[in-house]
Amino acid sequence: QKEVEQNSGPLSVPEGAIASLNCTYSDRGSQSFFWYRQYSGKSPELIMSIYSNGDKEDGRFTAQLNKASQYVSLLIRDSQPSDSATYLCAVIRSNDYKLSFGAGTTVTVRA
Amino acid sequence: KAGVTQTPRYLIKTRGQQVTLSCSPISGHRSVSWYQQTPGQGLQFLFEYFSETQRNKGNFPGRFSGRQFSNSRSEMNVSTLELGDSALYLCASSLIAGARHEQYFGPGTRLTVT
Count of H helices and E strands in chain A? Predict the structure, then answer.
């Protein structure tokens, strides 16, 4: 079982719609979770961090965490063409504090 | 505040050579981590340094090494380069090491081995 798994995508959504990205993790003791956005040819950019169960909103982005289900999600509301990128879910392992990444989900927003 | 900087940005080497990559973290950040990113393997952790000490190491051969200086700047070295070492090498810095540290990435060094 992979440490961090994301829906494989690619995910194509029309402009203005909600993009929903999912991530599951295997380490039940993990406490810190992150979403990074990576444009083609660029480095990952941190867009959200979440540490407690529930929702965390930042502009058009909402991260949701459910530790009991070992599940993290990212919602992008009112999707824009500039949101077209690969989104990486990352989790800090509880035993050694290494940051473990999922394979990423590529999102394309259609104008 | 300036972000993470990496030099050089692009590098072309031949098999058997060695290479040294440099990373300057965000001012005040003391932890530096290195990652390798390839299309097939995704982002893979190489090692993490904090206060000049290696705290964690990923599953890479001994050809990959690193160090951190007293000003938190870090270098990684790859000896006896192989074709499979062609990748984007990313450095990330964080304020501290530990369970809640947010990591910020530099622009990366794209290494091509021919």
Answer: 0, 11
CA B100-A10-A39 angle, 5° bins: 55
Distance of CA A46 to the CA centre of its chain: 10
Lowest-confidence pick of A46-55, B25-34, B92-101: B92-101
Which residue of A32, A43, A92 is in closest CB contact with B90?
A: A43
Is B26 within 8 Å of B1 (Cβ atoms)?
yes
Chain segment B8-65, per-residue pLDDT in tens: 999 999 999 999 999 999 999 999 999 999 988 889 999 999 999 999 999 999 999 9
Name every residue in B having a CB less than 8 A away from some CB of A. 33, 42-43, 45, 48, 55-56, 58, 88, 90, 92, 97-108
Residue A2, pLDDT score: 86
Looking at beta carbons, which residues of chain A come within 8 Å of B104? 46
Cβ-proximal residues to A59 (8 Å cutoff; 6+ apart), any chain = none
Indicate the burial class of A16 (C-beta count within 10 angstroms; 0-12, 13-18, 19 or more): exposed
> How far apart (Å, rounded) are the C-alpha atoms in residues B71 and B34?
17
Neighbours of B69 (CB within 10 A): 12
Q: Are A104 and A86 in contact (CB under 8 A)?
A: yes
What does each C-alpha distance from B60 to A30, B45, B104 come to in angstroms? 24, 9, 22
Could you tell me the CA-to-CA distances from B32 to A15, A28, B4, B76 in Å, in that order?
A: 38, 26, 10, 11
